[in-house]
Amino acid sequence: MYDIKWIRDNADAFDKSRARRGLEPLAKTLLALDDSRRAAISKLQAAQERRNAASKEIGVAMKEKDAAKADALKAEVAKIKEDWPAMEAAEREAIAALDKALAEIPNAPLDSVPFGEDERGNEEVLRWGEPRRFEFEPKEHFDLGEGLGLMDFETATKLSGARFVVNKGQIARLERALAQFMLDLHTEEHGYQEVNPPLLVRDEAMFGTAQLPKFREDQFETFRPSDEADFATAYSNAVTQFFLSHDDSTYSDAQLDEFMRARLDPCFVNYWQRMRGSKMERAAALAEMRATKTNLWLIPTAEVPLTNLVRESILDESQLPLRFTAGTYCFRAEAGAAGRDTRGMIRQHQFFKVEMVSITTPEQSLAEHERMTGCAEKVLQLLELPYRKVTLCTGDMGFASQKTYDLEVWLPGQGKYREISSCSVCGDFQARRMNARYRAKDAKAPSFVHTLNGSGVAVGRALVAVMENYQEEDGSITIPKALRPYMRGADRIGRAG
């Protein structure tokens, strides 16, 4: 997320970075929104100052027994109070309009990212391994899995609809073995700390890593009744955000009140305003709050909870870099994938993935990006799966990314390379959305951290790659040597039963 102050000082550079993504100039529009925000804030502050001054002048006029002046001042104060709600609303709308516009702007690509409109502009960096030459026509994974009686798409459709699978027996064990192998590699050899995070997260976490608001339609959202614990969490988070944003400035009770109104859900605002009232009023407010649903999001990737581990915090520079890994189920609506990969496990609503996340200083982030990508490559090398590494162009890279490497594994059943890992450096783009900072030695003020994320790797797609690359003419699957310790020494998967 961008700082409007930076855009004001670097309007040309901002628009040029948008042009590299094929986007129209936006600096002029954003600065106009910022001017409106500043004007609304100034108008409200001026009205507040005038109301305070006029109130004091009323006392002076009454002491001097100047009734006419006192009445005129009272009328002025009354007019300010009458206009106050409209001015507050104008300020809220101006702030919200700018915040919304800034939240929907993608990150700026680094100069080293190739320019291009779509995946055709991606640049291949290297290839590793030679695709196996088969003496028979290789099958796709779903034909292999169904032929073995261990992969059931038909039953999964009865249970959950399209884009699900039921894996059984040795195929299910092979999928589990892949995840365990990856986690052991990253924790024991690559220096990542294993984390078992929540799979359900709040709006703020999804906003922090930039899944919201732009990609709302790609997510699965859940709802449940609100309660006092939800209010306490929301209230605490809002208060923390307020004081973090006012750490170097004075503030008034009115500013705190306005901040809370803007950030709390309406049902929580109602409860907050009435919780100091009578017992009957509190009970009524509580009943209304419980009738309101609280939403949580199923994570589309463990990037969301892992990156948000440092949200709203100030780290010491000596703690960095932080490296986290997690193996979790992930959930994606695949709203824009109609007609693509409709058979098999390549594109599913629910899938397992091992994720890597790094939190670094700005000076460390580019080297960490190369390191992280190398960790993902090591997985494929140990599994002896041929792959290629590509740099995504400006038209194909993700919303939050400054630069992305994709690893594409060879799938002989399809006769082409398919993405199995994506490793991105995001700079301070996500950190600004999360207010995640660190304090350098002898620094007067904290700075934003840099964040990185990468698949280490997608377990479901790794299962697909192993099945297709290690298939035999009779339909059996040879188990890669690296996975045999996780398969009780088995070296082959044959037909069930």
- CATH fold node name of the largest domain: BirA Bifunctional Protein, domain 2
Please tally the helical runs, counting DSSP H or I stretches of 4 or more residues. 16
Read across the widest sheet, the strand sequence of neighbours is: 1-11-12-13-16-10-9-4
| Terminal CA distance | 55 Å
Give the name of the CATH architecture of the largest domain. Answer: 2-Layer Sandwich
In CATH, the homologous superfamily of the largest domain goes by the name Bira Bifunctional Protein, Domain 2
Please describe the biggest sheet, giving its number of strands, its sense, and whether it closes into a barrel: 8 strands, mixed
Q: Notable features of this structure?
A:
497 residues, alpha+beta, Helix Hairpins, 3 domains, eight-stranded mixed sheet, 44% helix, elongated
Structural commentary:
This protein has 497 residues and is of the alpha+beta class. It has 3 domains: 100 residues, Serine-tRNA synthetase, tRNA binding domain (Helix Hairpins); 288 residues, Bira Bifunctional Protein, Domain 2 (BirA Bifunctional Protein, domain 2); 65 residues, no CATH class. Helix content is 44%, strand content 19%. It contains 16 helices and 18 strands. The strands form 5 sheets. Strands 1-11-12-13-16-10-9-4 form an 8-stranded mixed sheet. A 3-stranded antiparallel sheet has the order 5-7-6. A hairpin with a 4-residue loop joins β12 and β13. The protein is elongated, with a radius of gyration of 28 Å.
